[in-house]
Design goal:
CATH architecture of the largest domain: 3-Layer(aba) Sandwich
Strand order of the largest sheet: 5-4-3-6-7-9-8
Bound molecules: S-adenosylmethionine
Strand content: 15-25%
Number of helices: 13
Shape: elongated
Oligomer: single chain
Amino acid sequence: MAQPQTWTTLAVLDWTTKRFTEAGIAGARLEAQLLLAHVLQCSRVQLYTAFDKPLADGELAGYRALIKRRLGGEPVAYLLGEHEFWGIPLHVDPSVLVPRPDTETVIEVARGTRADRAAPCRVLDLCTGSGAIALALAKELPAATVIATDVSPDAVAIARRNVERAGLGERVEVRHGDLFAPVAGETFDLIASNPPYIATAVIDTLSAEVKREPRLALDGGADGLSFYDRICAEAPAFLVPGGALVVEHGFDQAETVRARFERAGFTGVTLVHDLGKQPRVTWGRRP
Ligand SMILES: C[S@@+](CC[C@H](N)C(=O)[O-])C[C@H]1O[C@@H](n2cnc3c(N)ncnc32)[C@H](O)[C@@H]1O
């Protein structure tokens, strides 16, 4: 690919966009902008106020290193060390899943289960990863006390950093442990979860980018459903009567997840589609 004589901001962006597009990266220009803004420590808009400014050698070297890593399959969020979910900036690193737009449906459904969003309530986020769901629900339910659990000590550390960063340490607590173990004997008005839900054998067929994410965050067991077996069976004991369970699942898992909700005695079991019109979230209430 022909290289320009002077690497101005615009020339760098144009070159990278082309290279990323050739490599099959969706949103190539946006990613080029995000990475360059990260290196130059400015906003994306500011890039264009100095579009004809040549990059210094050190800036160019730093940017090239990131481009190389991106082309090697590292998700842009890990390179930036940050990702926004529900308007909340979150630290992310390879110990946590990069929160997906699909998961916003969990937030919409979960807040909708509360008739009075301003009323105090207790919320549990199982498998919290970066803390995305816990923090978004704390934001949506301003009187809620939220407990988030994860079995990965590294994820717990990241989630705790994100709680502090969001200034929500008074209302959001992150605990380490296996699913419900850290909340033994407690009850909640709302339980939300985006657990691992990819079948083990499918993980090796995923894109290089997804495979950079922790296996622990992806692996849902032989059929991808092992977490729903446990969550649906155990959740009623941790919910107050009328309390709601809301889970994200794969687009092709809706029927099997519904069956688990019904088997566990949940009522009003409802499937909700995500913004891409895929079956994505199932929820129901403890009678
Ligand atoms: C699909 S990620 C979801 C992360 C986050 N909730 C989100 O939506 O971005 C699943 C998370 O479950 C955690 N996890 C895996 N097994 C677990 C278990 N037995 N108990 C608690 N958390 C677990 C992983 O460490 C990972 O952070």
